[in-house]
Amino acid sequence: MADREMAGEQQVDAAIEVYNPWLTPRKKLIAGGIVLAVAFASIIYVVTVNTGQFFLDVSEVQQKGSLLFGKDIRVNGIVVPGSIVYGEEKGVSFQVLDTKKKSGQPLDVVFPGVPPGQFDVPSVEVVLEGRLEPDKVFHITSIITRESRKYIPITEE
Amino acid sequence: MNEAKPIKAESTRSILPRLTWVDGLFWVTAVAIFVDLYLIFLWVPKEAIQGNVQRIFYFHLPAAWIAYLAFFLVFLFGIFHLRTRNPRWDHYAYSAAELGVVFTSVTIVTGIIWAKPIFGVWWVWDARLTTTALLWLIYVGYLMVGAYAVSGDKASRLRSAVGILGFAVVPINFLSVTLWDTVHIEPIVAGGDETFLSADMRFTLYFSLATFTALFIFLLIVRIMLRESEAAVEELDQERETARS
Lengths: 157, 245
Description:
The complex is a heterodimer.
Chain A: H1 2-19, H2 25-53, E1 55-57, H3 58-64, E2 72-79, E3 85-86, E4 92-97, E5 107-111, E6 125-132, E7 138-146, E8 150-151
Parallel strand pairs in A: 1-2, 5-7
Antiparallel strand pairs in A: 2-4, 2-6, 3-4, 4-5, 6-7
Chain B: H1 21-43, H2 57-84, H3 87-119, H4 127-148, H5 152-166, H6 169-179, E1 196-197, H7 199-244
């Protein structure tokens, strides 16, 4: 049974080779493998670049200073408690601190939109995307709040 | 005069259906699912910051773990299949891959539902989420190989190769939160001093993991049985075709 199947496969391969030598299963497999490998490599490259090179902490932003003016960057920080000021209609300004040091000089941030629901949680960690302008204020276009790694149960229930 | 035929001893048979160990596993899993739902929605306390949405955690994490287990089995059975050429290993691997895709889908969907209220966005292309999407695509591709390949044997060998190579993404996916800066948080279980999970939350998580594992084993066994029946029917069809010609 298996031998017959193998012989059948070989006949199919031979027939394909006569009509179109580029479509033999072996060549298709190699081409598919190359495409798959390139796809993997590109996705990993994109992920590494997007999340590694441009994922800065507040202290790194302050160190690089004017080098970052006008560039699209992604910054990770902790919202300084009590620094949040909402605009009259919309928009919000606040300050963020370095996530590792949790101290030092805060970075001023301005966001024209509506922040996400978890934004008001004390000392929430945020990932901000936007541009650092020459006034040293970080003008952002998006806020992503990170969840805490501590799950605290509500005790009064 | 006709001789009286012996009467079968019908009355001595048990009226209870004959239970196999698969039936037993089904009932154990079914009861565990109900207990698990009770623990998740009624017993475990609400999380102080996230509120009720945090309960997704007890589905999201076990589903992800089971998906890893399923893909590891695809990898293992794929090696056995390429070494022995025994189609039985391919049936096992294919069944595990189907379930791996299902559990990865559960992980992605629960993650999306959880992300919107917590991250503020449905999806973000960080390393963890991107590699999870990649993992899902690889194993959907694995399942599609059978549908587009020229012959059964060739398709199964190609599938095994995809299953073995595709498994390389699993450790990348697991380590992505520690290798790169991601929006997705780092591990909570065994995460050190920076993490906290109360005893009741931990118990619910482990119970949920055990339930998902039981469900996975049950579904895998049933799927393998079905796949082997499909293969047997296919073989009979081929034999009939050969006999006709």
